From TrEMBL:
The lineage of its organism: Eukaryota, Fungi, Dikarya, Ascomycota, Saccharomycotina. This is Dynactin subunit 5. Gene3D superfamilies: Hexapeptide repeat proteins. It comes from the Eukaryota. InterPro entries: DCTN5 (IPR047125), Trimer_LpxA-like_sf (IPR011004).
Length: 175
């Protein structure tokens, strides 16, 4: 038996990944979800009809990362959807509690991304970064450090748009 479940759209999901609430999760073409990943699409109320987790095409989730959409402050909705754009990667052991990862974003290993935060397009989040709740990372930004020490944001060149897309495509073809 293969370690992977492969779909007709080219998506590969490890048999060792944990997906809760699969009916509330949308996974686009050519995504990879590695062993130990946990996607929590569980709805806490029966009123939500839209997906809780949406992964864009060529999304790449490394081993042991956790995607757990944030709780809402609104009484009619218990969860805020998590949307991950196209050509984006989440590193090993990273915990994602934010609401949006834009297109062409590279998130390193061992990060913690706080509730209701937003990472816009074409960003690089270095290893071991902790982003506080409700933080907005502007497009074309490299982030290092941690909010409990000092979060450092540096502007990236527009050329990184293509680099990040090629990196995501390369990861998919190698794994």
């Amino acid at each position: 038996m293969s370690e992977w479940i492969e779909t007709s759209s080219g998506t590969r999901i490890s048999r060792l990944a944990t997906i809760v609430g699969a009916s509330s999760i949308t996974i686009s073409a050519n995504c990879t979800i590695h062993a130990g990943c946990k996607l929590n699409g569980e709805e806490h109320t029966g009123t939500q009809k839209n997906p809780i987790i949406i992964l864009g095409k060529n999304s790449f989730l490394e081993k042991d990362c956790v995607v757990d959409p944030p709780s809402s402050n609104q009484p009619e909705e218990s969860r805020v959807p998590f949307v991950m754009g196209n050509y984006s990667t989440i590193g090993e052991r990273t915990v994602v509690r934010l609401s949006l990862v834009g297109n062409r974003v590279s998130i390193g290993s061992d990060c913690f991304l706080g509730e209701l935060s937003v990472i816009n397009d074409c960003c690089i989040i270095e290893n071991d970064v902790k982003i506080p709740p409700k933080t907005v990372i502007p497009p074309y930004t490299r982030v290092s450090g941690s909010y409990d020490k000092s979060l450092v944001m540096e502007e990236l060149s527009a050329a990184y748009r293509r680099v990040l897309e090629l990196d995501s495509r390369l990861l998919f073809s190698l794994k």
